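Exercise 3.2. Students should predict the tertiary structure of the chain below and write it as structure tokens, then compare their answer with the key that follows.

Predict this chain's 3D structure.
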Amino acid sequence: MNSVILHFSAHSATVSIRLLDLTVDNVARIFQLVPDTIYLKDRENGTLVLPYNGIFTNTVGAEYDVEGRPSTEAGPQFRFPPGRLPAAGPAPGPRPPRPSPSPATYTRNVVVATLVDGAWEEASLTVRFSADQATVQGIQDLVRAALDARSVVLADGQGRRLIPSAGTEGLEYWRRGSRKVVAYRGEDFPNKRSGRRSTTEMVRAEVARVQQER
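Answer key:
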């Protein structure tokens, strides 16, 4: 069976329609009904047939009564000759896929330590990262880009360098605000780690000593 017969008592209309064209949109247009209210009733056993994704797929009978609320925006009422199918558009195609949601992002405050005139100056930097970036390398790259630096070293509050490992990966580690993370420019970190003064610092200290002796 490739088609069914639809009856609509309000219009005294009888229409033969192919199963491929048996969609809510086509039935609504043919009988001028509100699409969301349309369902079919099997004339033989009274079974109700509801649409699935806009298509009547569970039709096993040969004739159905069309039920639904007339559209208030419809034009003049008309009737179709029995057994005649009006022009109907093709069945609707697959719906376009929904856009993928943007990945969740989180924020992390990083202390930026900079060596200025022999003293360490600190500033606060907030970086936004995703779950994939919740690693030492990921945060390091974000800080480096924000500072426009050639290289960056991350350390804990005691000046110990953070090493990529299972313990320093994941959201649980990087979302914990109580854990201090300090970023050093690559050229400054050796001085912090060894406790030695930088070349610039030593030169300035020597100049200050000479001036005091005069």
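Discussion points: The longest strand covers residues 105-116. The first helix runs from residue 24 to 31.
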